[in-house]
Amino acid sequence: MKVLDEIRPSEEERKNVKKIIDEIFRSIKIKDAKLELGGSYAKDTFLKGSHDIDVFVKFPYEKYKSKDISKILDKGIKLRHKKIHGSRDYFQLEKNGYSFEFIPVLDIKDSRQAKNITDVSPLHKKWVTKNLKNYDDARLMKKFCRARNVYGAESYIKGFSGYVVEILIVYYKSFINAVKNISVWRLPVYIDAGSHYKNKEEAFKRINKSKRENNLVIVDPVQKERNAAAAISREKIEMLVESCRNYLHNPSDEFFIERKISIQDLIVESGRDILMIARIRNLNGKKDVVGSKVLKVYSYIEKKLGEYEFKVKKSGWEFNSESMLYYIVKDERLSNMTIHYGPPLEHEDHVSEFRKRYRNTRIINGRISAELKRKVKNPKDFCKEMKKDFYIREKIKKIDFTLY
After folding, report:
1. How many CA atoms lie within 13 A of 301 on its CB side?
2. Strands of 189-191's sheet, edge to edge?
3. How far apart are CA 169 and CA 182, in angstroms?
């Protein structure tokens, strides 16, 4: 496949990255702890041009199981770095254009020893390096998922993590075999690559029901009570299944191209309707947290458009150093008046208060209601309201709207 040449790291890139990693490892010495390469670089599943490198800082279990290993690591990194708050704080530093994340973990042999979810991550790496034979197939699946917008374990994405992708390739043996099988998924789907259970029924007894609500159960090979796919949204699962079907129908390298939102394309697509673009300056902070806030703003604006009786035909968003939201809104004139619904009639005290507050009330479907002058009549008015909205202002630095 031609796309492989575009995503497989060259020997020169591998040598350059190794040199940088070796330099970092030589410059950081933490008493009692050992540094271990993690993530896709350790598993040799990283994509060409990837600049994010994970490093596990492993502390002896018995000696440090009750200590604050994040605090110890913070003091031990003498290079300029940034603290990222999480279930256990970790640290970032930049070197030659690469972003290193130093993750403090306890050195455990069994997932049951874990004091924090991050303690298990080196065991994930160990399992993948032992069982994954087709590294390029894992690269293809990662790139495919990225291009189809279903890749990423962050809470604002709720997609397929690198670890889950690697499990799928181990289980299905190759990229094309994975695509063929995923294309015929009918939820619920059960996958046990570590062969921990006799059948699905036995697994479901051990895995918490709340962790399999999306009906995709991928048993974690190193932590059998955990569903590695628990955080993936139903929407992302359905998007991947549909993408696999489409790819099989017409295999093409086009499916591996990551496309950013094009305002020009959206203008064409919106036609006679209104395209609303919101450009956002994000808050500073952990990417996962900041992204979740932008997602909440995106969903909130769509909800408010509905409340103001605008019909949203399509919407989407893009999270980056500066984020962008878009909504294609049907171009129609709203009436000057709108119906404001009050409480059900059985809530007599509240109905009485409603009648005192509003004139010309009437009953609609068992609820007291009143006809009010519409405050927001067009998208321009709506944008002005959203710029002042407190819910939005507390989640981002700034928002600017453009209508096309």
Report:
1. 34
2. 189-191, 216-220, 223-227
3. 11
Query: What digits encode the pLDDT tens for the residues 92-146?
Result: 999 999 999 999 999 999 999 999 999 999 999 999 999 999 999 999 999 999 9
Query: Rg (Cα) of the chain, in Å, rounded?
Result: 26
Low-confidence ranges of the chain (pLDDT < 70): none
d(C-alpha 135, C-alpha 43), whole Å: 8
213-236 confidence digits (pLDDT tens):
999 999 999 999 999 999 999 999
Structure tokens at 146: 């990225």
- pLDDT (0 to 100) of residue 67: 95
Structural domain including 359 reads 337-373
At 4, list the tokens. Answer: 């492989």
Q: What CATH number has the domain bearing residue 220?
A: 1.10.1410.30
Is the same domain home to 267 and 399? yes
Same domain? For 12 and 46 the reply is yes
This prediction has a pTM of: 0.86
Mark whether 275 and 399 lie in a shared domain: yes
Angle at 349 between CA 343 and CA 350, to 5 degrees: 30
Dist CA 58 CA 27 (whole Å): 16
Question: Residue 324's closest CA among 262, 384, 271, 390?
Answer: 262
Q: Residue 323: count other Cβ atoms within 10 Å of its Cβ.
A: 22
> Which residue, of 226, 242, 258, is where some domain finishes?
258
Task: Give dist(CA 19, CA 27) in Å, integer.
Answer: 13
Cα–Cα dist 375/358, whole Å:
16
Distance of CA 111 to the CA centre of its chain: 25
Distance separating alpha carbons of residues 224 and 90, to the nearest angstrom: 26
> Environment class of residue 250 by beta-carbon count within 10 Å: exposed (0-12), middle (13-18) or buried (19+)?
exposed
